[in-house]
Amino acid sequence: MPELPVVAPRDFAEQVLMSPSPVLVDYSASWCPPCRQMEPVVAELARELSGRVRVVAVDLGAHPGEARTAGVTSVPTFIVYAGGREVSRLTGARPKAELRELVSAQL
Question: What is the pTM of this model?
Fold first, then answer.
């Protein structure tokens, strides 16, 4: 899993849906090669957006039920939440610029 704060299901509403700032959630699993490939990219983006966008991870290996809850059918999946709802999503390994663009509409 990435060096991001990992959000457990019991904390999801408080940490993501009730966040005053937009939240980029990295839905991934340690057994997923593309997820591991994206770890440094997402961590770098988190540092760049610090203070404007919260970036967290959901470990689908530890919490597989969260995939169904979020409608995630492939990993990695990146979902931006703002105002308590999903506002955008990307699936698969992507360049950092695409992830930045995903959240830029919420800044």
Answer: 0.95
